[in-house]
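Question: Hello, beginner here. Any chance you could explain the protein record under this note? Any guidance would be welcome.
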Amino acid sequence: MRTDRLQGALEMLILKSLEHKDNHGFGITLHVQTVSEGLLRVEEGSLYPALHRMEKEKLIAGDWRTTENGRRARFYALTASGRKRLAESENNWTSVAKGVRKLLRFA
């Protein structure tokens, strides 16, 4: 799979994680892993550069808050642009999955 496709997948996972709740980096990682029942993992080395890029592109907005554990962390929220990108990404991945399902049935 091409790098841009993988970057798009990571972006979609992050945006989807933030769709209903603001969260910090570790919370995003935990959400992805929990919801996917351990099938998907987001590593720190990929997550934080993606968060910084997405914040720069105004897909997400971040601010410093205190976590439930009393630690200071940067929490991220979806922006209007992020919601639009999420919808586009979901449509794209639905099409890709449909194509793969057809290929698996044929092969």
Q: What stands out?
A: The first helix runs from residue 3 to 17. DSSP finds four helices and three strands in the chain. The two ends are 19 Å apart (CA to CA). The chain has one domain: 3-106.
